[in-house]
Automatic annotation (TrEMBL):
Cited Pfam families: Ank_2
SUPFAM superfamilies: Ankyrin repeat (SSF48403)
GO biological process, one term: protein K6-linked ubiquitination
Per-repeat ranges for ANK: 39-71
Entry annotated with the keyword Mitochondrion: no
Protein known as: Uncharacterized protein
Signal peptide: none
Natural source organism: Ditylum brightwellii
Keyword annotations of the record: ANK repeat, Repeat
GO-annotated molecular function: ubiquitin-protein transferase activity
Coiled coil: none
Gene3D superfamilies linked: Ankyrin repeat-containing domain
Amino acid sequence: MSTPPEWDLLLSASQKNNVQDIKHLISTLKVNPGHGNALGQSALHVACLWGNVEAVETLLSLNAPPTLQNRITNGTPLHCAVQSMKPPLKRRVDCVQLLCTEIQKQNSSGQDTKVVVVDRYGCTPLDYVEEMLEEKDVVSGDDDDDDEEWMRLRDILVQHERCEEEEEVKDEQVKLLWGCMQEYNVEGVRVCLEQASNTTDEDDDEAATTNTSKLQRLVQHVDTTSGCTALLYAVQTFISLYEETKHPKEEEAASMVQMIQYLLQYNSNPFVIPKGSTKISMKERQFLDNITTPKIDEDLTKVQDDCQVDMIHQVCTILSSCYKSFSSSSNDSTQKQSI
């Protein structure tokens, strides 16, 4: 089926670096920002090929997918920016910087955006840069402006690929955290969170920022099996434990309360509900709503068992105190955030 003519106008506008047309086509005419031509070249591929920084920035702001692969070489917009020979090089390097920043941002926020993508020949953008540097025999500090830009391009992509390695480390941390939670290992959960938040040097602001980001990724990770963040999983498990029988598993339930406390201490946000989650029951959503508002005592009266009341009250107290800190930093404290 052929696409509407205005869809291909998006590629033309990207090639001409016409930001206003790009905005009009996507925002007003509802053209798919990831639309590709017969060769699978998207607007981002085209903009990067021509080094059109403004077009790239606009397309990314309008949710154009940054890692789409074309049908020629399975190349991404990053591959196009690196392999193109269209001058000036500086603008193509700026495009690479924008793409890398967006890819890393999406990846850190829990989106399934792969950091490093290889083309049909098994090469990453960095591989092509290294090959070009060998051919040019570029030396850092040379007077040639292009040589400087090639070195900058290499540095950006080296740092970008390091993020992939960090993701592998994060995956191990996630597995460890969730394993501890499923085994009711409170101390293990505490250690996982502490290690993710620790910096090697208290005076190193960059290290502190990096570790904060690692911690956020860990606590915001959505488990594919349960459809939950760690905090939601703990709340979900706690509810199922005290509702399971007339005599709940007190030790396991108490463990979940401690885990919830640790997760909140390490900045888990009780307002974050996984986008499109179908795994959270209405009761659990109501529970989360209730424990983040002052009107929690009404529900406590419905529970007869003193032990259950005690545990629920602990969770309510913990999350209610957290509510104030999160709501004070938000313009709309009742609006749920999406991952």
